[in-house]
């Protein structure tokens, strides 16, 4: 029995509506798996070197931004060059930049309108009828009249700025850690060099004192003391080498290089930093920690603004059609929530409290940092005075004493024990000078780390586009996208 055209008209309309919605789906993104490949990553990590192109490219970027940095690891890696390597390859910085990539993806797609919603109701009359179908298709659009989407976009932008500030803070903290590890490693290496020089002097004296003892010009017990001192110095050098190996591996980890990566380190206890201007006043402008907390406070502000906008309703509107037993009805669907019961009171109250917490975190961080800066400045002054006193007073005295004792021994007038004591005192004083320089440089590194990087240099003509912060690689759209 043939179907009456009017009986299938409503059902056909419903099927066409579904077909139209299905035609849109192929434009959606598709999923592509990307499995882990540890062997490939392990090979790439082991082949990474301090002179790879990413580090050289970053050095060129700094030069274009007004911070010229000589980078040539072929003649040995110096501290400033090691900081560049760490800013490019440090594993913690890699993770921080990828987290910034998540925030960037969120900010780029925040504030979008909600997708329209298609609805379809299909009813049929159970009794015999010429056209038993009742079809009601509808298409609803949400019009964001509340301003919620704009507030959401501003909050996502603030969260991105906060994430970039966290990257900048970690970059500066990484540079400080590299400096401190470098200074400790350099002190151990310099102490080993000092012990090696003293050991050379002791080796020569062991032979001469043994000859004097054989000739009866020195008691053998005194000559034996030089042998004991030589053995003690050899043990000290073994300990220094073991400590130097451990510190070098710590440095390699900070630099993001494998244990077998080929490079030479150039020891130095001189830190290229000016202590002038490292005050609590400079802290407010230069501290990466305070900069990060400022951005987090802005996130709290924008979160409160978004929650306030959430209490206002958005309008849902769309065309509406109804096919009722052969009759066609056209109209408009409107929906508007009434904020009289909920009104997002909980979200607004929580956002208010979170903003107060963010304010307190910023203010208390400043108090702690300002106190630490004052204390560290005093410690740096004391360490500098101690180092100067050793250089000006103790070093000349022990040098004269050792020269006089050596001259007496060469004249055959005894003085073997005096010479040995003079050598020991000279070694202790020079090692104490290395420790004093280490304390002074570590104190300066800590003070610089608390205050923050120096201001960006003045704008130079014809530079490449500057980065938002130049104390390390700033994530761009390409660099932070996972």
Account of the protein in words:
- The structure is a single chain.
- The chain is an alpha+beta fold.
- It is 64% helix and 8% strand.
- The protein contains twelve helices and four strands.
- It has a four-stranded antiparallel β-sheet with strand order 1-2-3-4, with helices on one face.
- A hairpin with a 2-residue loop joins strand 3 and strand 4.
- The chain is elongated.
Compute the separation of the termini in Å: 62 Å
Largest sheet: 4 strands, antiparallel
Overall structural class, as computed from helix and strand content, comes to alpha+beta
Beta percentage is 5-15%
Question: Total helix count?
Answer: 12
Shape: elongated
Multimeric state of these chains? single chain
């Amino acid at each position: 029995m043939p179907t009456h055209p009017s009986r299938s008209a409503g059902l056909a309309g419903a099927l066409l509506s579904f077909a139209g919605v299905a035609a849109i789906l192929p434009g959606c993104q598709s999923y592509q798996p990307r499995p882990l490949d540890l062997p490939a990553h392990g090979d790439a990590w082991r082949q990474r070197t301090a002179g790879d192109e990413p580090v050289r490219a970053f050095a060129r970027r700094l030069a274009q931004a007004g911070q010229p940095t000589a980078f040539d690891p072929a003649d040995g890696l110096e501290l400033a060059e090691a900081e560049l390597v760490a800013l490019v390859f440090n594993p913690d910085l890699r993770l921080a930049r990828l987290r910034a990539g998540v925030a960037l993806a969120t900010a780029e797609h925040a504030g979008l309108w909600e997708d329209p919603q298609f609805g379809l109701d299909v009813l049929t009359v159970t009794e015999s009828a010429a056209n038993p179908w009742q079809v009601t298709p509808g298409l609803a659009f949400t019009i964001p009249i509340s301003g919620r989407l704009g507030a959401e976009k501003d909050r996502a932008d603030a969260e991105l700025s906060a994430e970039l500030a966290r990257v900048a803070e970690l970059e500066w903290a990484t540079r400080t850690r590299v400096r401190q590890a470098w200074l400790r490693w350099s002190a151990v290496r310099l102490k080993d060099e000092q012990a090696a020089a003293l050991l050379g002097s002791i080796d020569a004296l062991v032979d001469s004192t043994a000859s004097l003892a054989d000739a009866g010009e020195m008691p053998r017990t005194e000559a034996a003391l030089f042998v004991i001192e030589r053995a003690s110095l050899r043990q000290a050098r073994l300990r220094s080498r073991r400590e130097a190996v451990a510190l070098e591996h710590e440095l390699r980890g900070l630099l993001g290089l494998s244990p077998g990566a080929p490079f030479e380190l150039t020891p130095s206890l001189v830190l290229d930093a000016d202590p002038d201007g490292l005050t609590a006043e400079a802290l407010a402008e230069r501290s990466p920690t305070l900069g990060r907390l400022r951005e987090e406070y802005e996130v709290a502000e924008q979160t409160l603004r978004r929650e306030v906008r959430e209490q206002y309703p958005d309008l849902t509107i769309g065309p509406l059609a109804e096919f009722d037993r052969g009759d066609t009805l056209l109209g408009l669907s409107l929906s508007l929530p009434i904020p009289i019961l909920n009104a997002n009171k909980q979200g607004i109250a929580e956002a208010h409290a979170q903003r107060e917490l963010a304010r307190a975190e910023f203010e208390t961080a400043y108090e702690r940092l300002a106190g630490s800066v004052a204390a560290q400045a005093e410690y740096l002054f004391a360490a500098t005075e101690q180092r100067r006193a050793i250089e000006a007073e103790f070093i000349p005295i022990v040098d004269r004493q050792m020269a006089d004792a050596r001259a007496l021994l060469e004249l055959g007038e005894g003085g073997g024990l005096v010479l040995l004591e003079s050598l020991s005192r000279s070694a202790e004083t020079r090692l104490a000078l290395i420790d004093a320089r280490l304390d002074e440089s570590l104190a300066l590194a800590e003070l610089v780390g608390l205050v923050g990087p120096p201001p960006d240099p003045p704008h130079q003509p014809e530079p490449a586009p500057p980065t938002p912060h130049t104390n390390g690689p700033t994530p761009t759209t390409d660099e932070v996208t996972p």
